Amino acid sequence: MQDLVANKVHDETRQGEAFAPFANDENQYNKKFYIESYGCQMNFSDSEIVASILQNEGFGATRNYEEADLVLLNTCSIREKAEQTVRKRLTEFRKIKDSRPGLLVGVLGCMAERLKSKFLEEEKLVDLVVGPDAYRTLPVLIEEAETGQKSVNVLLSREETYADISPVRLDTNGVTAFISIMRGCNNMCSFCVVPFTRGRERSRDVHSIIAEAQNLFDRGYKEVTLLGQNVDSYYWIDEVNDEIVTFGKLLEKVALVSPELRVRFSTSHPKDITDEVLLTMSKYDNICNYIHLPLQSGSTRVLQLMNRTYTREWYMAKVKRIREIIPDCGISSDIITGFCTETEEDHTDTLSMMETSAYDMSYMFFYSERPGTLAARRYKDDVPEEVKKRRLKEVVELQNRLSYESNKKDVGKTFKVLIEGNSKKSDADWMGRNSQNKVIVFPKENYNYKKGDYVFVKVNDFTQATLIGEVVKEL
Ligand code: 5AD
Ligand code: SF4
């Protein structure tokens, strides 16, 4: 669930992007909010819920914090570095508050949940602290904060899915959008803080998901990504149609909105992705052939300490099954180096698993102990930092080679590509993605294509991160 730049070493997935909806909207409101989002795609999606709630309260979004009445940081706790980045940013805003006493600053998301009122103990750092399940109470909390009270709501919920709130699409390209289908996580991977900051897993009403996909399609969007910490455990009892909706069924229903609407999803847990999901993917052309399947470690012993509940062999069999059912499936991964007790042999196991899985792309991290997690309580963070970093470097170098090899194999092939916008480097080129989620750039030439069109592109060249091609008539 990430900004899919190939082979990024993740400190934070995306850092502090500020967004606002269409410029025209900015003048309709008398109060303005500015929001920066950090971390995973779920946070970016949550910011769109927050924007919707604030818009109903008369707040318009702005990209310029200097004209904002309310500044919000939607934060990430996944690694220590992510938290440090936010802290630094908050100190910058504290300085701004000194010269603009009316300005309210709020912390949202995982750091708010983890640190709770600790933020308020620090003089003038923030006025509002709001956890991921408490966004509906933002209007009341803002009102309290406006009267000079410090306001906090970090209650986690077993039910909240914001199903009825129509997200305000922020910083949108008008072609691709995210739909949150579930919240929280029950998995308890021992390194991970998410179960503590986002609470118990719960699925969103299937009807509201389909309605959101249909609405996006009606507004010209051509691709939706179904988002959740663990999408494969989606489960909804649909009393209206007397039906149990699994993730496979949900995928099918979204795919049926229109063959012109591409469907992606993230993130899958290797233990939960089923044949039903894989067979549904192979049945519908518009469900993209791409799976983000985090490995974390290639050593069965480490996987056990991580509480991932699968072995190296089990993961390998899963990759084999994916390739049997969807031969051209793109697969990416998350890898952690230097988890507690990791030996050189364990590390070698990770490298060999990466090679066997032949990932197209990976997000790679070194282990960062998070307070309160199972690992922090049970195990010693005993791999020295320089060893963690050296292993990370090796993992990155291997992934660079695997990505290069994967792209090389695509030369000469033709892909159906959805145009997302101009290429970053040149307005004379389009940028889009193929089903496998690879970025392809190609010259616009004299063709009459526009953003949101599907085109066939033949690959002529490549870099480690990008395919380079030209438009052709057909596959
Ligand atoms: N240290 C390093 N990486 C972590 N991740 C989660 N928790 C930690 C941690 N404590 C990584 C995992 C996960 C991704 C979103 O972040 O690889 O899949
Ligand atoms: Fe964290 Fe594991 Fe849940 Fe992912 S599946 S959010 S890594 S606990």
| Helix content percent band | 25-40%
Enumerate the distinct ligands.
Answer: 5'-deoxyadenosine, iron/sulfur cluster
* Rg estimate, integer Å: 22 Å
Gross geometry: globular
Give the tally of β-strands. Answer: 22
| Main beta-sheet strand count, sense and barrel state | 7 strands, mixed
GO molecular function, one term: metal ion binding
Subunit structure: Monomer.
Keywords: 4Fe-4S, Cytoplasm, Iron, Iron-sulfur, Metal-binding, S-adenosyl-L-methionine, Transferase, tRNA processing
Organism: Parafilimonas terrae
Describe the fold and architecture.
This protein is α/β, with parallel strands linked by helices. It has 3 domains: 20-153, Rossmann fold; 176-408, tm_1862 like domain (pyruvate-formate lyase- activating enzyme, Alpha-Beta Horseshoe); 414-472, Beta Barrel (OB fold (Dihydrolipoamide Acetyltransferase, E2P)). Helix content is 32%, strand content 24%. The chain contains 14 helices and 22 strands. It has helices at residues 41-56, 80-99, 110-115, 118-121, 138-146, 194-198, 206-218, 247-255, 275-283, 300-305, 312-325, 344-357, 374-378, 385-408; strands at residues 14-19, 31-39, 59-61, 70-75, 104-109, 128-130, 151-153, 176-180, 182-183, 202-203, 223-227, 235-238, 243-246, 262-266, 290-292, 330-337, 361-366, 414-422, 429-433, 439-443, 454-462, 467-472. The strands form 6 sheets. Strands 1, 2, 3, 4, 5, 6 and 7 form a 7-stranded mixed sheet that branches. Strands 18-19-20-22-21 form a 5-stranded mixed beta barrel. A 3-stranded parallel sheet has the order 8-11-14, sandwiched between helices. A hairpin with a 4-residue loop joins strand 21 (454-462) and strand 22. Helix 12 runs parallel beside helix 14. The longest helix has 24 residues, at 385-408. The chain is globular, with a radius of gyration of 22 Å. Residues 1-14 and 20-24 have low confidence and may be disordered. It binds 5'-deoxyadenosine (5AD) and iron/sulfur cluster. 5'-deoxyadenosine binds at residues 78-79, 191-192, 294, 296, 334, 336, 365, 367-368, 370. Residues 31-147 form the MTTase N-terminal domain. Residues 408-473 form the TRAM domain. It is found in: Cytoplasm.
